[in-house]
Amino acid sequence: MCCRMFDQIKESNIYDHELKFYKTSEFLDDESNEIGRGRSFTKGWQERESNFLHMSYKYLVGVLKAGLYDEYYKEIETNLTCFMDPAVYGRSTLENSSFIATSINPDPYVRGQGYVARLSGSTAEMLSLWTLMMFGKKVFTYDSELTLNLKPLLHKKFFKDGEVSFKLFGKVKVTYVNENNINTYDKEFKIKHYVVDGVKMNEVKGDLAEQVRSCEVQEIKVYF
Questions:
Q1: What torsion, rounded to 10 degrees, do the Cα atoms 151, 166, 126, 73 define?
Q2: Angle, CA 157 vertex, CA 162 and CA 4 arms, to 5°
Q3: How confident is the prediction along the chain (224 residues), in pLDDT tens digits per residue?
Q4: Beta strand residue intervals within the chain, DSSP E
Q5: Which whole-number Å values give the CA distances from 112 to 4, 19, 43, 78, in the listed order?
Q6: In this structure, what is the dihedral angle of CA atoms 128, 132, 138, 139, given to the nearest 10 degrees?
Q7: Residues 171, 117, 81, CA angle at the centre, nearest 5°?
């Protein structure tokens, strides 16, 4: 069901087939101004058929949560600003915008450019994507004792020389070691062991998990 819906959305005019990202709506030409102010804007600008980043990113969160992992990693190539062409985007690709003018805008100069710096909705959704990608829905579980529950959803292309690192809680360095070069959402994914501050173990639970949560350890290596 989810995959069929994803395909139908991408085949519709909600998808910008030229710039390869998502718009706020289908074409509104046949609608009256009674539907709201979005109809009064120029096509592909502001609320009318443009790419509102926080809405596009929210959709990507849904795609990731639905388990459409391969589809998600294909989509972010053209939907996340960090992967866009800065010459087209018109600003730093590390900076989100309120909206991006789409390919139906009558002015070819503005198509694909981001307008109005935005550090709220799109950034919050980007953080949701990042957390799901790097460690999954729940960092810890609890069943009689606290247990570290790292379940990243990473494509193998995100590993450089078989490794990728991030800071958990902004302090604890976590390094994933992908020895078999697999996607971490593949069925064969399994954590072999952990190395916490130089000590090897099969799981991280109890007092040690408490120490991780309290940022009392410095580094965790996770071997797949």
A1: -60
A2: 140
A3: 578 899 999 999 999 999 999 999 889 888 888 888 888 888 999 989 999 999 999 999 999 999 999 999 999 999 999 999 999 999 999 999 999 999 999 999 999 999 987 667 898 999 999 999 999 999 999 989 999 999 999 999 999 999 999 999 999 999 999 999 999 999 888 999 999 999 999 999 999 999 999 999 999 999 99
A4: 15-16, 21-22, 51-52, 97-100, 114-117, 140-142, 146-148, 163-168, 172-177, 193-196, 199-201, 219-223
A5: 28, 7, 13, 11
A6: -100
A7: 70
Q: Where are the domains of the chain?
A: 2-131, 136-223
Contact 49, 25 (CB under 8 A): yes
Q: What is the dihedral of CA 27, 33, 34, 35, to 10 degrees?
A: 30
- CB contact set of 7 (below 8 Å; sequence gap of 6+): none
Longest CA span, the chain: 67
Of 198, 140, 152, the closest CA to residue 176 belongs to 152
- Helices 121-135 and 53-65 sit at what angle, rounded to 10 degrees? 20
